[in-house]
Specification:
This protein has a seven-stranded mixed beta sheet with strand order 10-11-12-9-8-13-14, sandwiched between helices. Strands 5-4-3-6-7 form a five-stranded parallel beta sheet, sandwiched between helices. Helices cover 43% and strands 16% of the residues. The protein is globular, with a radius of gyration of 28 Å. The model has no long low-confidence stretch (mean pLDDT 97). The chain has 515 residues and is an alpha/beta fold. Strand 6, helix 9 and strand 7 form a beta-alpha-beta unit. Helix 10 crosses helix 11. The site of nicotinamide-adenine-dinucleotide (NAD) has 31 residues, from helix 8 and helix 9.
Length: 515
């Protein structure tokens, strides 16, 4: 296939070897595919929940049994180390299926809505969760199976159809995911669209009932604007610039190892990657030395993946160079490996002007760990919160109570003490952000609220011929409601209330007969 004619990645980031070609979904068919999904959804949404659960149950074993195949695809297509595929893309996804199938009945169960029998005699109310309809799912390449499954599993169980467009940099992983679902749900309930931004735009323009997007801030804003023109709601999970705060009493070994993992897992191509470290200057020398010692032996391609896209490699180089020019010291790394899209895991000591450089302010999404020395917890917290992003953050300390208090003050959707960023793998834990990290929620019962709409059903068993508030509007109506207002008010005296009771008794019965 002619590389220029395809939006897809054609060379492995690991070693530049050619990747197998992928067929693009013609743009002009996208609207038709969404229409087909809408038809399929009507039947799927009406299928009893128990049947939907049964249909999706085999997905768990398919994920576990085909883990090695997935790891091979992710290694070639994204450069992901095999161990990371198993820990981030296989095992947590099996947990995810298990969690949702165990929980879905309880979470979708209709709820009685208590109605005051005096105000609403004979009436009963029920709150039901109904599927949205067709959900357009547009995802990035960094966790190309785990991220989409966090929407696909609960959305399908809740009775939606999903039209899924994976990233043009991970179409083979996207196709693998579609194969996992093969034959489990009726045709049209799950649809794969392959392509780049053009297919993504066409999908948003096809007016699905919800767009679930994970990706960059810039694309998130474009999608929100496009969706607004047809009032399609959007769920946006965007970029991050996570901070780790290392306090003077931290367990130094655990903090250093945790920070190294948090910064370099998936080569830092993780929305919750540690991209800023604020360490108490009392322990900074020892902490920095240990981080450098742990970073130096990491092998690109084995422990740390290469960058997945050429654009990412360019951003990483630009950020490191700008930081160096602004006075940052490169303690280890700081250059490409020269093999594929590899870049050496890099630790920077940030001071002075380099704290304003892009490596500290913009999302790098690469294997770069900038460290800043600070004067205690308040200084660290103020700097950590001084960001337009707010996805996750962490505090490292042996004083767990103080750690928790500080974590509560982090301006993020997720905050952890003595760990970082892995909670996206916990299906019961909501994953969300603040600021430019977006407002979408994945995982947990809160995510289900994105994939369903509340529907309120009221049944009236009253035998009265009229309601208080129905026409005609008479004097007895006004007198009745005035009396009710006095009786409910907390400021009216006893005499006024007694008078109101007589007014009510004299007028309410007339009203109920429509007079
Ligand atoms: P991206 O925004 O470039 O692309 C994401 C997806 O959007 C791709 O599928 C792409 O084809 C599609 N797309 C591009 N233009 C579009 C348009 N105009 N309309 C519709 N779709 C369009 O992001 P990326 O480079 O693939 O992913 C990296 C970004 O994702 C980082 O910023 C990272 O922080 C973020 N991310 C966030 C989370 C989270 O949970 N908050 C998780 C993972 C990644």
């Amino acid at each position: 296939m002619d590389a220029a004619a395809t939006p897809f990645s054609t060379l492995s980031p690991l070693d530049g070897a050619p990747l197998e070609p992928v067929a693009e979904t013609p743009i002009e068919t996208v609207r038709e595919l969404v229409a087909g999904a809408r038809v399929a959804q009507a039947a799927w949404g009406a299928t009893p929940l128990a049947e939907r659960m049964e249909a999706l149950w085999p997905l768990k074993d398919r994920i576990l049994d085909r883990g090695a195949e997935l790891a091979r695809i992710l290694k070639r297509e994204c450069g992901k180390p095999e161990g990371e595929s198993w820990t981030a893309e296989v095992l947590p996804n099996a947990d995810l299926v298990e969690y949702w199938i165990e929980k879905i009945e309880e979470l979708l169960a209709p709820e009685e809505v208590a109605l005051d029998a005096m105000s609403y005699p004979g009436k009963s109310g029920q709150l039901i969760s109904v599927p949205r309809g067709v959900i357009a799912l547009i995802t990035p390449w960094n966790f190309p199976v785990a991220i989409p499954l966090r929407t696909i599993v609960p959305a399908l169980l809740a009775g939606n159809a999903v039209v899924f467009k994976p990233s043009e940099f991970s179409p083979r992983a996207g196709a693998f995911l579609a194969r996992l679902l093969d034959g489990l749900v009726p045709a049209g309930v799950f649809t794969l669209i392959q392509g780049g931004g053009a297919q993504g735009r066409a999908l948003v323009d096809a007016a699905p009932e919800l767009v679930v997007f994970t990706g960059s801030v810039a694309t998130g804003k474009k999608i929100a604007q496009a969706a607004a023109s047809s009032l399609v709601p959007v769920s946006l999970e965007l970029g991050g610039k996570d901070a780790a705060i290392v306090l003077a009493d931290a367990d130094l070994e655990r903090a250093a190892r945790g920070v190294v993992w948090g910064a370099f897992t998936n080569a830092g191509q993780n929305c919750a990657s540690i991209e800023r470290v604020y360490v108490d200057r009392k322990i900074a020398d020892r902490f920095v030395a240990r981080v450098v010692e742990l970073t130096r032996p990491l092998r690109v391609g084995e422990d740390v993946s290469p960058l997945t896209t050429p654009a990412q490699l360019e951003i990483v180089q630009r950020h490191v160079e700008a930081a160096r020019e602004a006075g940052a010291k490169i303690l280890v790394g700081g250059e490409p490996t020269g093999v594929g899209l590899g870049y050496l895991p890099t630790v920077l000591e940030i001071e002075g002007a380099s704290e304003q450089s892009p490596v500290m302010c913009d999302e790098t999404f690469g294997p770069v760990l900038p460290i800043v020395r600070v004067d205690g917890p308040e200084d660290a917290l103020a700097r950590a919160n001084d960001s337009r992003y707010g996805l996750t953050g962490s505090v490292w300390t042996k004083d767990l109570e103080r750690g928790e208090q500080l974590a509560l003050r982090l301006r993020t959707g997720v905050a952890t003490v003595n760990n970082h960023g892995f909670t996206g793998a916990i299906a019961a834990a909501p994953w969300t952000g603040v600021g430019e990290s977006g407002f979408g929620v994945t995982n947990s019962r809160h995510a289900l609220k994105e994939f369903t709409r509340p529907r309120f059903i009221l049944v009236d068993r009253s035998s009265a011929k009229s309601e208080l508030w129905w026409m005609p509007y008479t004097v007895s109506l006004v007198k009745t409601v005035q009396a009710l207002a006095i009786l409910r008010s907390g400021t009216q005296g006893l005499f006024a209330k007694l008078k109101a009771i007589f007014q009510l008794l004299g007028n309410a019965p007339k009203r109920l007969m429509g007079k």
